[in-house]
Predict the 3D structure of the following.
Amino acid sequence: MRMRSLGVAFGLVAAVAACSKDNLNIANPNVVTVESAQGDPASIQLLATGLLADLRGLVTGAPMPLGILGRESYNLTPTEGRNTTGYLIGISVAGVQKLDPSGFATGLWGPGFNARRDALNYYKAVEASALTAAQKSAARGFARTIEAFAMMQVIGTRDTLGAPIEILEDFTAVAPFVTRDSVYKWILATFDAGATNLAAGGTAFPFTLHTGFAGFNTPATFAQFNRALKARAAAWYATSGGGTGAWQQALTALQGSFLNATATTRAQFDVGVYQIFSTAAGDATNGLSTATNSNFYAHMSFQQNAELKADGSPDNRMTAKHRGGLPSRAGLQTADGPVSQPTTNGYNIWPTSTTNMATIRNEELILLRAEARLGTGDKAGAIADLNQVRQNSGGLPASTLTAASSDDAVITGILYEKRYSLAMEAQRWIDMRRYNKLNLLPIDIPSGPNKNFVARVMPIPQGECNARNLAAAAGSATGILGPGSSNSCAP
């Protein structure tokens, strides 16, 4: 009996001795870490799926806010007026209207940098994996393309404010802001690095892409998607200081993309990469669906400004995307009156909750080539591309533009085609700013306490500014907080 007691006591002592504080730190299997992902045979697929989710958020998070800023749409929520006022009225700072940096119009900043942080962890897992050299190269090219796109969404919305481009290992550290020019150069270089990786990536990715990448799901075909996005980025940069050199980069990128400049059918115009949705558990549905979103309205100017076909009926694109006859809505009603123009129009671009949303389509590529051709002195080529879309997608008569037309007249023609071809694809506000034409966007309420304005940039979120100010106060800031300011990065 005594021997048995001693044996039990010895066993307890040994067990206690074995339970050091480190042994008590048991990993939670429901919480993913970089280290645990690296040891998981399926980690690359899991992390790639995470980057695809990031990409979807960056695409789907853009149409509504940028549509409101570009006077394409409204988000007329009856219980939250700031979905209207936050974009059209903003706040007054020293008598100047601005978007509220702590309000609703601060989107695409956090998601852009979240995607880049996820990419950093993804690269670590790829390098630590047993993938072949070709598979690792393909995996890098995939992520670099998404990283570059993420920064496009950041700088496309912040423009002259600039942005950080470093993702530091220490996620609590503050990376410095750099200029818009530097951000664009980083984006173009990252797209190119991704294309180089994809070219050495063999015949297949070491993971599966979703069906929105049908036709673009191998390293070689995904590279065409990479080149298409680079063409858009180069066009943005060309009108933001890059000039002729950037226009030439756009033309070169288009040559390696999926551009079909002779497209005449809707199916040919719509070739591209899409974000997909489903009602499956854990997945997401299309939040701008006509079937589910009763607050999503079109700006009346979309109908009012549509040109007419030879038979007197409207532009095919307006007819296809337009949804009229809705109950009249005028935004938030206050004691001072409405805060937006009344509208009875909506869009029918995404009819169901699982309708795909375009990331980039061939129709845009043709119009990007029109821009780039004009930017490099080929006015006749620009007009030809403009008319290719105008006549075959819009059903309109050929433009009256000629080689004798001014560059500005051709730009105006291209912008009309982009407006109707790319409605609610998060391009119009950026396009109008790129060509210094924001003053041509309609102002719903031109005077009074609810006076509207057209914002030039989305603000840096106030939380970001506060973190930088705290870092500066602690003596750890290493870069500018915003153009011309050492203590605030809000515009």
